[in-house]
Design goal:
eight-stranded mixed beta sheet; 28% strand; D-Amino Acid Oxidase, Chain A, domain 2; FAD/NAD(P)-binding domain; 9 helices; binds flavin-adenine dinucleotide; alpha+beta; six-stranded mixed beta sheet
Length: 365
């Protein structure tokens, strides 16, 4: 039986390790830190295929949504998965664009409908203060959010029960390759891990790990900010996307806030919960949901989005380095479980699913 080593125990690496171990492989899962403590712990974690184009990328993301539901059943309920649905509120003058998106998604058999703000208040979210009763609102009932660290930790635990070895708190510092075998050296020195197969699931550090086997992986890393607020009068029920702020519940009594327009202004000297950007996000949220008027910021999570050079997932064998595989992607919360299952099939059965065909590492050669 081939010895497999997975580098990175975020949602992506934990999924790969779990599915490899389910299929009976010998697995060592390595992480420089604690499992699920990287980008996986700083994600908005919206599980969706909403604005994913072209169709091939949409299909992969729909498969990701379905895999969450399949795993939920496999794990006897899946408390990490919050099946709330999502709404998107049109910006000034953007109603037609939103309607066209809903039409396209419906033609791809994705659950989507248009409502007015008045209908959304009556049927979905009574406490939102929309710009006016006619504001167009799109509703996507099958979209969910995931408690990504909880899922990753469950996958790590289940992989261990299947016999996987885990070594956390030791970074991989170099990888030697000889005659198709690998020696994975850890920062602690001395000891190394022998492997026939190495999977790079190092998220925003995946380019550094790729470099260790002489492979150049183009990777962009973008900052992202999530602000957690206490919300005693918590009255939002689902994911909510608006032109100024995005919100979702984050466990009893808490709401998570995010917006791309704030991410764009993040810099290295971000000051944590006291940073004006946190206050600004809360002010925007309070204008939308007035019951948040007494809420306060309790946590600021600063994240690093790993985005392969052309923006799409990079999954599978790297032809120039036999035995070396990559599992690197943005939207990794949506895609982690499906990437894990398909990559385990590829590694152990030599089967490359057609869903992955457009997203192979070989395009970055
Ligand atoms: C603000 C924000 C919002 C987001 N919103 C969404 C969303 O709504 N929906 C969605 O699907 N996705 C979203 N994402 C993206 C998603 O969170 C990521 O794609 C996903 O978490 C990546 O998971 P990962 O396992 O690849 O990386 P990580 O979770 O970062 O895991 C990589 C692991 O590799 C380890 N590692 C790195 N280098 C080494 C080394 N040399 N040796 C050993 N271990 C190493 C790290 O310690 C880390 O634990 C968002 C991201 C951000 C930042």
């Amino acid at each position: 039986m081939a010895k497999t080593t997975v580098i990175g125990a975020g949602i992506v690496g934990a999924s790969v390790a779990y599915f490899l171990s389910e299929k009976g492989a010998s697995v060592v899962l390595l992480d420089a830190s604690e499992p699920a403590s990287g980008t996986t712990s700083t994600s908005f974690a919206w599980v969706n295929a909403n604005n994913k184009t072209p169709k091939e990328y949409f299909d992969l993301n729909v498969a990701g949504m379905n895999e969450h539901v399949r795993l939920r059943d496999e794990f006897g309920g899946g408390a990490w998965l919050h099946e709330t649905g999502n709404i998107i509120v049109a910006g000034e003058g953007n109603g037609d664009e939103l309607s066209r998106r809903v039409e396209r998604l419906r033609s791809w058999e994705y659950a989507a409908e248009m409502k007015t703000a008045a209908e959304a208040n009556a049927d979905l979210e009574p406490d939102i203060s929309f710009p006016n009763p006619e504001t167009p609102v799109a509703h996507f009932p099958d979209e969910t959010w995931a408690d990504a660290p909880r899922l990753a930790l469950e996958l790590v635990d289940s992989a261990r029960k299947n016999g996987a070895e885990t070594r956390f708190g030791e970074a991989v510092k170099s990888i030697e390759t000889e005659e198709g075998r690998f020696a994975v050296h850890l920062e602690s020195g001395g000891d190394y891990v022998e492997a026939d197969i190495v999977v790079n699931a190092a998220g925003p550090k995946a380019d550094v790990v790729a470099d260790m086997v002489g492979r150049s992986l183009p990777l962009d890393v973008f900052f992202g900010l999530l602000v957690r607020v206490d919300a005693p009068e918590n009255s939002i029920r689902r994911l909510i996307h608006t032109p100024t702020v995005n919100l979702r519940p984050d466990g009893d009594g808490y709401i998570l806030l995010h917006h791309d327009s704030v991410d764009e202004r993040l810099t290295d000297d971000f000051a944590g919960v006291e940073d004006p950007l946190c206050r600004e996000l809360l002010e925007r949220a309070t204008r939308l949901v007035p019951t948040l008027e007494n809420a306060s910021v309790v946590e600021a999570r600063f994240g690093f989005r790993p985005v392969p050079g052309d923006g799409y997932s990079c999954v599978g064998a790297v032809p120039s380095v036999p035995g070396y595989y990559e599992a690197v992607t943005h939207s990794g919360v949506t895609l982690g479980p499906i990437v894990g299952r398909l990559l385990a099939d590829e590694i152990l059965d030599g089967k490359v699913d057609s869903l992955l065909a457009p997203f192979r590492p070989g395009r970055f050669s």
